[in-house]
Amino acid sequence: MATTYNVYRDGTKVASGLTSKTYTDSDLTPATAYEYHVTAENEHGESGPSNTVTVTTDEPHEPPEEPGGLSSTGNTDTTVDLGWN
């Protein structure tokens, strides 16, 4: 019976000693494919690898276009009103 789990990304161990059967890999590159497999480990050693899963991270989200037509729509001695498209 397994006591801990190890996660491998593209053949490199990225997590070890996990007691949960879930893992979140972070700080990855957008729009990139990664291959993962998991092994189990106990006092007798490490198992062979699980099946491999290939996951591609999402494309980066683009920021919106900059607003245009910024202008002052009025002011007083203590306020400024702005408007834009």
CATH architecture: Sandwich
- Domains (count): 1
Q: Class, according to the CATH hierarchy?
A: Mainly Beta
Using the alpha-carbon principal axes, give the shape.
elongated
Q: How many DSSP E strands?
A: 7
Strand-residue fraction?
35-45%
Structural classification: mainly beta
Termini gap: 63 Å
- The percent of residues in helical segments reads under 10%
Tally the helices: what do you get? 0
| Order of H and E elements | EEEEEEE
Describe what is shown at a glance.
Pfam families: fn3. The chain is mostly beta strands and 85 residues long.
Any overview of this molecule?
Residues 1-60 form the Fibronectin type-III domain. This protein has a single domain, classed as Immunoglobulin-like (Sandwich), CATH 2.60.40.10. Helix content is 0%, strand content 45%. It is an all-beta fold and 85 residues long. The protein is elongated. The strands form 2 sheets. Strands 1, 2, 3, 4 and 5 form a 5-stranded antiparallel β-sheet that branches.
Task: From the structure above, extract its key features.
5-stranded antiparallel β-sheet; mainly beta; Immunoglobulin-like; 85 residues
